[in-house]
Amino acid sequence: MEHIAVLTSGGDAPGMNAAIRAVVRTAIHEGIRVSAVYRGYQGLIDGDIEEMGPRNVANIIQRGGTILKTARCPAFFEAEGRRVAATNLSKRGIEGLIVIGGDGSFRGAHLLGEEQGVPVIGIPGTIDNDIYGTDVTIGFNTAINIALDALDRLRDTAASHDRLFLIEVMGRESGHIALYVGVAGGAEAILVPEHDTRAEHVINVILNAQKRGKTSSVIVVAEGAYQGGALELQNKIQPHCTYEVRTSILGHIQRGGSPSTRDRVLASRLGYVAVKSLLTRRAGVMVGADQRGTTHVPFIEIWNNIKVLDEELFDIASVLAI
Ligand code: F6P
């Protein structure tokens, strides 16, 4: 291979820039050309592609978001969109692609490889940490640290005013962020989309906590844990609580900001490994990390398996909230 490309796709995540930097500089170190595709698969279809040099990725390792921009691109989920994308790559002599994104992005990458024969390697970049085959995704560590910092601050007000705070964190379909933030923040309860959340259960938890002498509490609610979100849950539980209940929705604040040390190191490692793997013609896989080192997981295994939550952590959180 003499020329490869890199793009970011799906929701931005802190550490994506560190991964782009690693891909570009590893490729140049290996003596091959490297191009950037802007705005994810949309840029691939539009031909928004530019060759990069090592100085193009200077001073970005510490920046959140993605300098390549990102988009969710419905056109790429049509065969015609993928055909145009492959033509745009081959016109420029680009022989392999690295996709930094989440599981939806990898589905597109898989189809591009299967239908158009483009060798593609994935790098997991999403704050949700919901990708099978890697212990952590780029952005997760930064996001949980930001959310935890917010929880700690909200706890000050909860304690000063004898309030219950519902803290809504990101995770429409997965509770990894909520679980880690909830355990680390000493939450009274942690509500996630993977579990059935009932207002009655939450009310019981609060009433029991009050009986044990608690005068304030925090509950972490993943965005997708309760129909209508944390505000709807607040409306349901407020009439049953003697506490004043308040909700704080952290939203996209969790997705921005400078990546943590862990995310920068992970992104640097995975960017480097992705290029090395592509050059040995290892394609159709995501590179990830587990306790033993780097992993290579076929795309198809990612959506045929679910990354399960660590259920023991829920027990630990409820025992420690006594
Ligand atoms: O996939 C990452 C994520 O941050 C989810 O946790 C969240 O539900 C979603 O993106 C929000 O996406 P958008 O910014 O497109 O609304």
CATH class of the largest domain: Alpha Beta
CATH architecture of the largest domain: 3-Layer(aba) Sandwich
Strand order of the largest sheet: 3-2-1-4-5-10-11
Q: CATH topology of the largest domain, anyone? A: Rossmann fold
Category from helices, strands and their pairing: alpha/beta
Distance between the termini: 59 Å
| Fraction of residues in β-strands | 15-25%
- Oligomer status: single chain
Tell me about this structure.
By secondary structure, this protein is an alpha/beta fold. It has 2 domains: 3-139 and 259-303, Rossmann fold (3-Layer(aba) Sandwich); 141-255, Phosphofructokinase domain (Rossmann fold, 3-Layer(aba) Sandwich), CATH 3.40.50. Helix content is 42%, strand content 18%. It has helices at 16-29, 40-46, 79-91, 103-116, 140-161, 176-184, 199-211, 229-237, 261-279, 299-304, 311-320; strands at 3-8, 33-37, 49-51, 96-101, 120-124, 163-169, 189-191, 217-222, 244-249, 285-290, 293-298. It has a 7-stranded mixed β-sheet, with helices on both faces. A 4-stranded parallel β-sheet has the order 7-8-6-9, with helices on both faces. Helix 1 links the parallel strand 1 and strand 2. Helix 3 (79-91) crosses helix 4 (103-116) and helix 5 (140-161) packs across helix 6 (176-184). The radius of gyration is 22 Å and the shape is elongated. The model has no long low-confidence stretch (mean pLDDT 97). Residues 11, 102, 126-128, 170-172, 223, 255 line the site of 6-O-phosphono-beta-D-fructofuranose.
